[in-house]
Amino acid sequence: MYVKGWGVNPSDLHPVNFDRFVEHQNVMVMMHEMTGYRRIRCIDQAGFGIEAFRMVIPDDWTCYGGITWVNDMHMPVYINFAVASPDGLIAFEGFPILKFTWSSKPMAVMNQQLWQSQSTKVAAPMQPDEVLLKYIIAPFRQKMQPYRIVLRGPVHPDDPMVADAFTPRTEANVRFGKVRIAYEIAENPIEEEFYAGVLYEQVPVIGGNFILWQMQTGSIRAPEGHLEENLPLFRTMKASLRPNEIWVRQLTDLMIGLYQQQIANIQKIGVFSRKYSQMQDRLREQRIRSWEESNRQFEADRAVNNTQIDRESPSERFSREAILGLERRWDPYEEKEIDVESGHVDVWINALGDRILSDSYNYNPDEHLMGNWKRMETL
Prior knowledge:
Blueprint: E1 2-3, H1 25-33, E2 37-43, E3 51-58, E4 62-69, E5 77-84, E6 91-94, E7 98-103, H2 106-112, E8 120-122, H3 128-140, E9 148-154, E10 174-185, E11 188-205, E12 208-223, H4 231-240, E13 242-243, H5 245-305, H6 314-323, E14 326-331, E15 336-341, E16 346-349, E17 355-358, E18 374-375
């Protein structure tokens, strides 16, 4: 997705925020009518083909980044955008929504790690400023090293830079934080402030707790010493962000459909596994019944003849074939049955009792060796 199209502020992706934008309509109309500002639209060209979001920015500012569709059931769109001043020193940026899972059960954590993706991580809950440093600042500002941490800490829920995130909310399950760093762009000292809202949800399960938490993030930057004076501009641009309700609903429906499809696939695998197991159980029972019947017949024949029958019992044959790895063949010289190593196509023997094991149907030792070799037939 491009700009017209760049992307969208992750803090405004939540569907419950639609009504919150009503109070900002006057702001958008006012900015649209002011000279020096323009409205930009984000068209989801690679996805649903409709407008995803819109925003009002200064007329000479440029848009970068956008939405990338990824193979992730939990969040199929990877969002990262920025709008910046002509010199690139002042900017407003939105980062991908990140989702996390955790459990108090170690085995559950190991299973969750198999499902990690670009937007879904396995990690124990952290404070917002800690998450910012590890998952946003470290990877996205790696090229700005060495940067310096100026401040970090909590943010009041009513701060305009986070006020719309996770609405409605309770103080118990949402926390806000920020981190300000300093670095240079083309030898210009820059300060950038990152904001995060983190939503925590705990689901009780047998023997422990399953924890789901996600983070919405954005940042603002300006030349050192000028960040505060540009706050009104940043807050107004954030307030002008408006998602397309139809696009968000389509995305939500897609995510629900992907989840249901995954559950259905798991259930299909479970049904197949149960049927396969039942089939193996039936075959195993048939083999056991056949073996027991053979044993009973053997004992009955021996009782009727009141003598020792000169053949092996089913249990002896099982021991010979399955445990010892032997098979019974006919010795044409001794004219009796003997046991030889199993698993070969042919076994040849001469008058001296020497044997050759062959894995070829076309091999005949008489063509190469002396000794009058004869094939030992399988019994």
